[in-house]
Amino acid sequence: MTRFTRILTATAALLAATSSAYALDAPTGPLVTTDWLEANLSDPKLRLIEVSVDPGTFERGHIEGAQNVVWHTDLVDPVQRDIASRENFEALVRRLGIDDTKTVVLYGDNNNWFAAWGAWVFDTYGIDVKLLDGGRKKWEAESLPLTTRVASVAASDITLPERDESLRARLPDVLAVARGESDAKIVDIRSADEFTGKIFAPPGSQELTIRAGHVPNAVNVPWGTAVAEDGTFKSAEELKEIYAAKGIDGSQPTIVYCRIGERSSHTWFLLSKILGYDVRNYDGSWTEYGNSVGSPIVNVSNTVWTGK
Q1: Per the domain annotation, does 12 fall within a domain?
Q2: How far, in whole angstroms, is CA 160 from its chain's centroid?
Q3: Structural domain that includes position 28
Q4: Cα 194 vs. chain centroid, distance in angstroms?
Q5: Which of 31, 119, 222, 246 is 20–30 Å from 91 (CA)?
Q6: Dihedrals phi, psi of 181, to nearest 5 degrees
Q7: Is 50 exceeded by the pLDDT of residue 97?
Q8: Beta strand 185-188 with 31-32: parallel, antiparallel or unpaired?
Q9: Residues with catalytic function
């Protein structure tokens, strides 16, 4: 073997080793299918995370290799109303064994409602994740296996950047649109009854505002409109048509909101990750806006809060 041949062989081996160390043959888009996930569950470069709404869902059975993230403790500040600090989120991500070499897939119950919120929080800290299209609903509907065994992974030493606030809308940003001082679009993704002010919040919800209605100049596209019967996202073409009919076509910056910022993350994900629009999530949402003194409100139902 000549010296040149040895160099080529060594280079090829190094490239192969680097590729195997970093590459999981993941789809290039923001979604993975149940077929892809089932075929790649044993890949050491996969980090699978469940973020479900209902407590105990993960413990009753989850996809093999998944780790549990609890939305109301792991993804938020434990004292002040905010998403998790960089320090706390970095500790979580390290515990989950996530670093730059891993493909991170999130899934959850209720059509990936809170999994999408998790994806938004991960994105604010520079970690691009994918969603299992259809979430638990589709996985279970296909009779794919669940386990109660908790995965064990080696911790990482990843260092996260400071939070990217450009993915987030604040109350002044929303007020600017409400008052006609900004050309951004606003999408209220709550139910029609919440939007019109007929109800203050969905039944059983504890987060309360003392005003009902919606932000002036907002359009209403309930988040479930984007979901097919099997829990997957509708096609990109269908989604474009749905939102274009409401004046949301990507030509202007868009802000999405709901009640506490979690349902709106589902719409943030599809508009930004699937359609490629410039979108910010207003995680203060209606519980901040509807309780803020002096903020303009449209309430066509003329409901009045009576303290009960």
Answers
A1: no
A2: 18
A3: 24-164
A4: 22
A5: 31
A6: -100, 0
A7: yes
A8: unpaired
A9: 258
